[in-house]
Amino acid sequence: MNVISQFLRLGYINWTLLRHGLDEVILATRLFRPLRFLIYFNPEHWRKTAAAAPRGVRIRRTLEDLGPIFVKFGQLLSTRRDLLSDDIAEELTLLQDQVAPFPSEKAKEIIETAYGQRLSEVFASFDEKPLASASIAQVYAAQLHDGSMVVVKVVRPGIKRVIQGDVDLLYMLANLAERYWSEGPRLRPREIVAELEKNLYDELDMLREGASASQLRRNFTGSNKLYVPLVHWHYTRPNVLVMERVQGIPINNIDELQRYGINFKRLAETGVEIFFTQVFRHNFFHADMHPGNILVSTENPQNPNYIALDFGIMGTLGPEDQRYLAENFLAFFNHDYRRVAELHVDAGWVPAGTRVDEFESAIRSVCEPIFDRPLKEISFGQLLIRLFQTARRFHMEIQPQLVLLQKTLLNIEGLGRVLYPDLDLWQTAKPILERWMSDQAGPRAAYNSLRLNAPQWAATLPELPLLIHEVAKQASKGRLQVRLSPDDLRELHREIRYASLRTTAAVAGAACLIGAAIIHSLSNYTLIMIAGIPLLSWLSAGIGLVLIIAAWRLERN
Length: 557
Known about the structure:
The chain is α+β, with helices and mostly antiparallel strands and 557 residues long. The chain has 24 helices and 13 strands. It has helices at residues 3-19, 23-27, 43-50, 55-66, 68-78, 86-92, 104-115, 119-122, 159-180, 184-187, 189-203, 206-219, 254-259, 264-282, 319-333, 337-346, 356-367, 380-393, 403-419, 425-440, 443-460, 464-476, 486-521, 535-556, and strands at 123-126, 132-133, 137-144, 149-155, 226-227, 240-244, 249-250, 285-286, 294-296, 306-308, 314-315, 529-530, 533-534. Strands 1, 2, 3, 4 and 6 form a 5-stranded antiparallel beta sheet that branches. The longest helix has 36 residues, at 486-521. It is elongated.
């Protein structure tokens, strides 16, 4: 996407804002604030005064018109009623599964092209009215010829081109931010856009989504907490996904859940348990958990289980990030802010020269007021603002690989606030993390490692005597060669240099001590004396001690 196209897209975004009567958003920015008087020259401004749609409706329609990236932003906001007024929050919830649909005739055409068959040859019945319509795809109810009830998910036509245009625009803005904004390098906007781009393109691939659903289903096999529908692989194509049709109540339909007598406390706790189990036990988590993608089963109201939908965005963590996060959470739960500060330094999330005591104090001042309080009494909006201020003060860099996790945490907390505001988020999650940490260290971890690597060791052990014999044979003939990488050579050079310094300092220190003793022993020495010992002996002995201590410290380091 060239610069002209990017500026045209920017113009379209601004025109869409104006068309929906959101000109105040544009003219409230610092760049255009001096031009606020131009609002009165906009015909739409006068037209809307007579019969304007509510602001929540206008915001929703604007996000729909602007495409998938904007819709997803609206979906995220819709889960945070603590940050929005009720009228806007209600409208944004429609973005979860009620985005303006594309024509069903086009969906049928896409399906028939994908299968190379007429629709009636593939499905025994097909309901042309969409069950749900989202930013990336549209979902229909259907029945296979073997009687199985399924849903058919069809990717929106032309959506890849729209996404590519918006991603290119975001890259342009990210480049400008890194170049001209002082906070740009710390926030790493280009890496965040790259992460967003990967996730959006993954959503367009129905084969990938089907594979993610199958993996999540295996992870929770036999669980009474989360049910994942079965993928019908024989009918799945890159732009069409066919899955088992499931029945449940949307998690944001509180009235219906109450009518079935659902235990909201248990439901909220189960949601937290599912999330932390996915992140720390399976290392594979559903990263798009807005209410449109979650149903609640009514089979066991007192111990309800979740039904997951839409597996387009899934998250994983590297082993190091996973361990640091688990230790961070546990340190937070135990009010051990010193450990939190040390972990941030160890992980490289803050500069190595950061004063741990200052960072610890800053974290304590932000987090201490929120512990031991239910969700309904916590302003997470204020908490996030203060955390961002703390991060800026200590030059903490954004971690792009954790953006999906942070987004999912916001969704989880938002759902918990709606379901059961008295939920103790910390005490629900803490036992899961403690079990995970015990699995990573101690006898259980050693046993698991032994069991996992036993087959490889069994295959290698018979070859070990022969390998030892070959090494000894090469060494006896002087043919044994050790190859070092440039990093190894630099480290070896550093060690040699330090060894030389240690030896020199120790020898010089010993010589100074011997010299001090010799000077003291001279009978005809008549210069300045201190406590019956010549001043020069004191000086020589002091220098010797300093050199020996320096050599000792170099050895320790």
